[in-house]
Structure formats: C-alpha cells, structure tokens
Amino acid sequence: MALVLVAACALIDADRRVLLAQRPAGREMAGLWEFPGGKVEAGERPEQTLIRELKEELGITVEEACLAPLTFASHSYPDFHLLMPLYVCRRWEGLVVPQEGQKLAWVRPNRLRDYQMPPADLPLIPHLTMLL
C-alpha cells in the first residue's frame, strides 16, 4: 500500500475560528470539508508545501516561522495510507480568498463536527478544540 504524505494547516483568525475549505466538484471526496494544504512533493518539506499551497489555494503569504506543528493523522484508505501533519498558523499576509473556486468557512472549534470531513481529518478536531 502506498504511503501518501499530505501537509495540512489550521489557519486561526483573531476570533479563534478555524478555516475549512470544501473540496470542489470533480475531485476525490468532493463536497467534504478539510483543512487547507496539499500533497508534499518530492524533495519538499511539509512547511514548504504549506507555504506553496496556501498561496495557490488562498492567495496568502505565510512565513515558515509562523507554522507550528500541532499533531498528525495516520489513516488507511482503500488504496493508500495517509500520513498528514497538521500545523497551526495564526499570522499571514493578505486576505484569505478562494483561488480555486472552493467554498470557505471560518468555524468555531466546537462547531467543526458540524462539517462533513474526510475520515482522516476527524481525529484532528479534539486537538484543535483543546488548543482553542
């Protein structure tokens, strides 16, 4: 079974809300809500992935020093095993604007379970709830 490394980021605004992005139609797990991020490319560190992905997906600039590792998910899907470190980011430059047509939602930690998420994301919720 292939191991897939995906980096995810919990962007946290001044009101202690977490950003979720909805996977667009036509993609695997379309319609589900997730933490922004993406697949770690060959030769790339997870922090570099997040800096690149947050710029591409949300139009914001993040400095590596503003990314703090919180926890990780390890989940087996039918075709691959996902390993996903989750970082927290409270500071960025620019306005969060969807760049790929995805819907976005700023969500209070105690409401994260109200959003249908991929199975790998669910165990991350208690860590964010405890942090915030």
Structural features, described:
It is a single chain. With 132 residues, the chain is of the alpha+beta class. The protein contains 2 helices and 7 strands. The chain is globular, with a radius of gyration of 14 Å. The mean pLDDT is 94.
Overall pLDDT level: 94
The Cα radius of gyration reads 14 Å
Q: How is the main sheet built?
A: 4 strands, mixed
Strand content: 25-35%
Report helical residue fraction: 10-25%
Following the backbone from N to C, one meets helices and strands in this order, namely EEEEHEEEH
Number of helices: 2
Lateral strand order in the biggest sheet: 4-1-6-5
Short précis:
The chain contains two helices and seven strands, in the order ββββαβββα. With 132 residues, the protein is α+β, with helices and mostly antiparallel strands. A four-stranded mixed sheet has the order 4-1-6-5. A three-stranded antiparallel sheet has the order 3-2-7, with no helix packed on it.
Structure keywords:
single chain, 4-stranded mixed beta sheet, 15% helix, alpha+beta, 132 residues
List the helices and strands and how they pair.
Blueprint: E1 2-11, E2 18-22, E3 33-34, E4 37-39, H1 46-58, E5 67-76, E6 80-89, E7 104-107, H2 125-131
Parallel strand pairs: 1-6
Antiparallel strand pairs: 1-4, 2-3, 2-7, 5-6
